[in-house]
Amino acid sequence: MRITLQELAQRLNAQLEGDAKTLITGVSSIEFAQGGDVVFAESLRFLRLAERCPASAVIVWRDAPSINKPLLRVDSPREAFLKVLELFAPPPHHPQGISPSAIVSADAYLAEGVAVGAGCVIEAGACIGRGTVVYPLCYVGRDVQIGEDCILYPHVTLMQGVRLGNRVIVHPGSVIGSDGFGYVCVNGEHRKVPHLGTVEVGDDVEIGANVCIDRAKTGVTRIGSGTKIDNLVHIAHNVQVGEGCLLIAQVGIAGSSRLGRSVVLAGQVGVSHRVTIGDGAVVAAQSGVAGNLAGGQRYFGSPAREHMKQLRLMAYTSRLPELFERVKAIERQLRSPGEEENG
Amino acid sequence: MRITLQELAQRLNAQLEGDAKTLITGVSSIEFAQGGDVVFAESLRFLRLAERCPASAVIVWRDAPSINKPLLRVDSPREAFLKVLELFAPPPHHPQGISPSAIVSADAYLAEGVAVGAGCVIEAGACIGRGTVVYPLCYVGRDVQIGEDCILYPHVTLMQGVRLGNRVIVHPGSVIGSDGFGYVCVNGEHRKVPHLGTVEVGDDVEIGANVCIDRAKTGVTRIGSGTKIDNLVHIAHNVQVGEGCLLIAQVGIAGSSRLGRSVVLAGQVGVSHRVTIGDGAVVAAQSGVAGNLAGGQRYFGSPAREHMKQLRLMAYTSRLPELFERVKAIERQLRSPGEEENG
Amino acid sequence: MRITLQELAQRLNAQLEGDAKTLITGVSSIEFAQGGDVVFAESLRFLRLAERCPASAVIVWRDAPSINKPLLRVDSPREAFLKVLELFAPPPHHPQGISPSAIVSADAYLAEGVAVGAGCVIEAGACIGRGTVVYPLCYVGRDVQIGEDCILYPHVTLMQGVRLGNRVIVHPGSVIGSDGFGYVCVNGEHRKVPHLGTVEVGDDVEIGANVCIDRAKTGVTRIGSGTKIDNLVHIAHNVQVGEGCLLIAQVGIAGSSRLGRSVVLAGQVGVSHRVTIGDGAVVAAQSGVAGNLAGGQRYFGSPAREHMKQLRLMAYTSRLPELFERVKAIERQLRSPGEEENG
User: Fold this and answer.
1) What is the ipTM of this complex?
2) Longest CA span, chain B
3) Which of C219, C290, C330 sits opposite A334 (nearest CB)?
4) Inter-chain residue contact C286 with B270, CB threshold 8 Å
5) Which CATH entry fits the domain spanning C103-307: 2.160.10.10, 2.60.40.10, 3.40.50.2300, 3.40.120.10?
């Protein structure tokens, strides 16, 4: 891919400052930039870094100061950079057609244009929509329904009856629809609760690598449309995740909890069972959510508190040595002179 | 499945209150209930919720108050509900027979009635007991021993020499018997310690999805009978887990630690190496266990403390802003009037 | 394997104390030792335990006190024990040759002596170095480069273009090169950022089971030579891990963070994005690293602080009930007698 700065400016609807004939041959973050690359900066700090890196041009905001490099001025540098990434992305080399080594049940239904990679196993009753790509070594259980234009990367497991919407991406090693962790203690023995429910994943959901989403005991474990899930996340039985949520790596959500729309759980957050988290709530990394959280606010800590309150508590905690000193000084002052002499 | 309330009452040994001819067509938790479903309630709070849901009948405790719905009165609503779930559970569609696409060593021993799914690889010396089902795409290493009536779901890996008891269930993507994390630092280089031991899993153990259980350096990493392990749990080399334990999702246990019988570790708990946890200890979510814990108690926090003590500390911590204010007020009061005027 | 103590002493360059004809038939940790085993002790405490265990001989430091058992005196008991483990390790039963059931692209390049197990899928352009062993059911994507003498255990996924050095070991279920978690919010929708970069893993790296290492957005996610990674670790896009690091189980490192050489992150540590951790820093279990950490020091806590400082804060925190009492006593003392009578 080679493109002149002029051509790139036209594609991005950008105002060009500098040599229009500059050849752009790649796209990069500032830290890995080489000559020929275009990078982006959305703050003065990154503009300074961009100026010193070997990149050949920088995408910047409309009224960014000029630097010693060609600039592409746009309304949203981040959005323009995304367009450039897509422009330079090589066409994906997905598997094509049905591999002769895939084991596809005669009772599975594959729409036109479905690709099934080598070594896959597709069970009876499975139904896969148009344009969906199944990479090698995936397992698609009985009666699983997969929408259109989905991508299952290698080693994905979809257990019996799971349903995925359209344009869902599942990264390698993820498991959807395994039994939840449910036992009833009878005479000191843990007896397994049968899991009759399933998992339903909406449209445009992306699921990272080695994620686990358990089926419901009865009813449905649900992942709302547009939600994105990072690697190694655990979602227990009967959890309801709203639309447009972001669940960062290693988050764990216990049984029957409910997340509203656009909830963000940062890395390693744990959510207790039967908790409700309101629309747009943002929970900082490693927090522990044990009770309901109202929407539209930021939370932090274990137990999770309103974010600023937690920061204040942490600041006070770090001043504990000082507080102990102050109390000691007061006690000394209050002691009678006689005591003081003896102490 | 369709059954009259009368018939259901007989099967549960329940006292029926309401129309005996009511048709029950399903079973559900209260929140997903539809008409025709039976639900259960074991407290007044859930009884009120059950009354307002569309379910057709409710399983309740013997002297629960009457509501505007048919009731099935039993000694243990939870146990009765478990029976109903099993009644309504569809017969499982496990793989049957040995798939022609499975690669089974001529030197493996498969008992009668063993099922091996498509694409599985079973190595020499492996020994699989009667009635065990191996789902597609599993790997069973050399000399692995699997008892009777076990289920291995897809993509399970059992490394060389691992031993499973009877009625063990392993969910997709779990790995049993990989090398532990052991190095000896020699001249600044981490040299790998060979792992000559193995993993032994007792009877009636259930292991969630994407769990990792490492083999011992020498000797055995052991999972006691009746223990249940949730998704994404890590169990390091030489760990000894007693019988009937519950290890909730994302728990991590470092090398050589020992859990007694019926220990419960809630989600995301971390246990340091060479720690001993006594019988029946319960550790709350996200706690960090760095030292030995006596049995029969509840623990919480990082470091894990006696549960009530930790709650008290957390309550005091949340009152730190107030304490700082109080100390400041005392200091102000103790200052001489002259100082006060100048300050 | 049977060897006299005399012969073992010669191989270890050890000073033998006791019956030279003693037969050694195994190697063990003290807790699992049986008759015929050799164990090691590098402190008095373990020497006492070794004395009481059934082992037939103990490897000890040069001037260790004599006990009621044959001793092998060496400069480094730990290093000598490692040699014994290697001596007693059975030769590994790796797959050999190219399995007829593996699906290897005609456009993949496999050097001499490469083994590819049953059911593997190797895509076009993949390049595998001499002596490397690929266990069954692995997926090696397009243009992946694997060095010499590597081991990929079952169910490993290497996505397109990933590069591994020499002598790299990857345990079952690990995923290298899946897309990172990157979205740009456009009109309230999370739009996926294409990931054009890759992952580069140095020489002598060992990667545990069910680990996830994401490819870079642009550029490279890098794992330095000699680094060892435990089970269930998450490494996000564009992270740079230096040489000789140890990342213990369930660690998570967010995007673009950089670890220097010989950094140790203990179990369940979380590292925020764009953080730099200096050479030789050691971070204790469950800590949360939100800002840069200087090298050569120990850290603990969430947020991670200098280790001793965190221990001191934790000690003060555990004394909070006492501090509240003391402040209350002071307030009582300061109250006027009249107030006291009324209160």
Assistant:
1) 0.91
2) 97
3) C330
4) yes
5) 2.160.10.10
